[in-house]
Design goal:
Elements: H1 11-18, H2 20-27, H3 30-37, H4 42-69, H5 73-100, H6 105-109, H7 115-130, H8 133-155, H9 162-172, H10 174-193, H11 196-222
Length: 228
């Protein structure tokens, strides 16, 4: 992504414009297209669900690290609240959907992380522990923003499948979108105070996480496993 931008433009809008091709690739994923149509094979969704559980366990650790790096009490409170929300999603939404899919919850939580799951969470943890707050926010933002946009898009054409409807409506919910807006405002504030080198790193981590979002759904659709 080019490093120069208009200083009057909010940073999140700049990121959005520079990654438009990646966004469109995500929206066109067969996994999401079939989820919206209600035709996605159950085993593909079950794979995704199990890997998402493993992903969120690590994501919560990254958010907790964000609370440690927070530059204001309000930001610290936000990260702690978001980390608690992640735990609730795992215990409520994922456990509920696993049950409705006929999956054993304990077995789901003991699955081995798949290749993309490992790569994505390693990326987030590395940024969280080697960079500052601005870089951490840039790395985690795609997870928030992608799910909000996907939820919003798919809510306009809900499938009849009750399990898939339940998942979609979770990410179309106003409360979730408010948490996304908090992260968007935060990254804009941090980018304003950042120097050019720091902003370039923010752009790099944002784009990398966005690519991993695409890969995460793609691995579920292809049932990706470790080759050896």
């Amino acid at each position: 992504m080019p490093a120069s931008r208009g200083t009057a433009e909010p940073f999140h809008q700049w990121l959005d414009a520079q990654t438009r091709t990646l966004w469109e690739a995500i929206f066109q994923l067969p996994f999401l297209q079939e989820l919206a149509a209600g035709t996605l094979a159950r085993d593909r969704f079950a794979y995704f669900l199990a890997q998402d559980v493993l992903y969120l366990e690590q994501f919560a650790k990254v958010l907790a690290r964000g609370a440690t790096l927070a530059d204001t009490p309000k930001t610290r409170e936000m990260f702690l609240r978001h980390a608690a929300n992640v735990a609730r999603v795992e215990e409520r939404l994922h456990a509920e959907l696993a049950s409705r899919l006929g999956l054993d919850w304990d077995a789901v939580r003991q699955k081995e992380p798949a290749p993309v799951t490992v790569a994505y969470t390693d990326h987030l943890l590395r940024v969280a522990h080697t960079g500052g707050l601005s870089e951490l926010v840039a790395a985690v933002l795609p997870c928030y923003w992608v799910y909000a946009r996907v939820g919003e898009r798919l809510a306009n054409r809900l499938p009849e499948d009750e399990i898939y409807r339940r998942w979609i409506l979770t990410y179309a919910d106003r409360d979730f979108h408010r948490s996304v807006d908090e992260q968007l405002r935060l990254i804009d504030r941090l980018a304003t105070a950042a120097g050019s080198n720091e902003r370039e790193r923010m752009e790099r981590w944002f784009a990398r996480s966005l690519r991993y979002e695409w890969m995460f759904w793609d691995q579920a659709y292809r049932d990706l496993a470790w080759p050896v």
